[in-house]
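Office hours follow-up: a student asked to see two folded examples consecutively, so here they are.
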Amino acid sequence: MLKSKGRTKADLIRELSVLRLKIADLERFKMQYEQAARDLSEKKKEYRTIFDSVPVRVMYLNVEGRIIRVNKTVAEALRMKTIELIGKSLFDIFPVERASKLISEHMDIMASGEARLGIMESFVTAKGKTVWFRVDKIPYRDRHRKVIGIIIFAMDVTGMKKMEDILQETEERFRHFMDHVPIYVFFKDDKIRSLQLSRNYEQMLGRPIRELIGKTMDDLFPSDLAKSMIEDDKRVLREGKPIEVEEEFNGRFYTTTKFPLVRDGKPPLLAGFTMDITDRKTSEAAMHETVKKLRMFLRGLVQVVSLMVKEKAPFTSGHQKRVSDLARTMATMLRLAPEQIEGIRVAGSLHDLGMIGIPGEILSAPRRLTDYELGLIKSHPVVGFNILKDIEFPWPVANIIIQHHERLNGSGYPYGLRGEEITLDARIIAVADIVEAVASHRPYRPALGIEKALEIVTNGAGTLYDPAVVDTCVSLFREKGYQLVEE
């Protein structure tokens, strides 16, 4: 038998087989390594794409305060290239005073090892514009948990800050309104418990406001009156429409208007206002004056409630005001009667009141809406009409509101009215509404500008929109220099 250094041929064959298996293992390992390298490269590219695409500004600084990594969002904001920022100090980017303050704060965070989240910081641009950021600052650690730098996440919240300021201002105005309104204003929950009352209830009931909140009518009024009040309140919540009732308390007479406030996914609230009409009972002249004042306060109160509710959709802030002013100005140019012009102004300021019945996330959605969501949006003229139809305005406000999305060719909603079936008042509001909506920003698109808005209504003149109203609108902007009112 053939032997080699004591090994037989069979031994050599076995060794060769083992060697071939090892070579095959090495080939598999090589293929796996190369695939892992490719995967790692793709992951790095994917990470970099995500890192550079997020709208949040991300920056890594080392312990010396120099940039070791930054995303494109930061670079674009600073009008520099990413590579140009690597290795720079904050002193190379910001004014000395601001850079010193930031670096001192970063050193404190790295020394303590504690993250600071939700910091609100403002920054004044070269053009003098104040920009607000919500900033998270987190210690950056190595694998031994030693702090070797800081990671900064900064999100531009200027728009949100503006909306918060608007909401705070609105709440302050409402509190001032509730403290000084000469009529009695109330809000109740679905259990008929008082949530908020105007300050003058203290004098009516002889108790401080803090002792009145959360109480039922049985706690505040005589049993017979309380029972009647509760029945009326339940009726409003059950039927979902306003009512007006007369009541007597402590020898004085009052008229009360109650109406429901629909909330997104929550039980409706009951709101209303009461006016002392004792003098009206004894004097016909006083009665007419009281009715006049009641209507004036009614308009003001509905506007305040409308303003509060629409804050759930911040982008609509100012829309109704601008539509109202534009519609009023067009009506004036069309030489309509002063009373009709005032009715158009009031209807314009309330034309989207029905939006209180639409979920806030739909109104503020930064995307194209589904058919179902569009259907909800299209219900707002009917909702607004139902809220106002039983309220005796001096003008046909409810009818204007329900028609402001109708179009001359019958393609509008909710009823598909045509031509002269649509009141002139509603035709004016329709043009003002579309012009303001196109010219202004919306969550799902940027503002398209006034010229684009005028182009749209001009192209639709005679088919969708009243030609005389369109001509008046175009002339107003291009010849008279009209501009949409600011907030």
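And the second, which I mentioned at the end of office hours:
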Amino acid sequence: MSIKLPEPIAAYFAASNAHDVDAMLARFAKTAIVKDEGKTMRGADAVRQWIEETIRKYAFSVEALAIAAAEDKAVVTTRVSGSFPGSPIELRYDITLAGGKISRLEIHP
């Protein structure tokens, strides 16, 4: 079964799977906030650094399994595979959109 994701989220996951840093970053608002692994990144430079570090550390791929969406918010349940213990794992991506961009992303186990 294929999951229908909002375009900015689908494009972000496609860029993530291609490990295309610029395409991933293009999906975020310049003032975006990302929360992952107990850290908070704010703004384009910090988000770029997080993207590059995450790709380097985990060489991951993401598959959307389910989505619950309302207005500008979406919760996407994913299966993430990569070079980390316990791979693959399910993670929840809590995403807020604004102006067609990701303004907030929180990743939870």
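Two things to take away from it. The chain has three helices and six strands. The chain has a mean pLDDT of 96.
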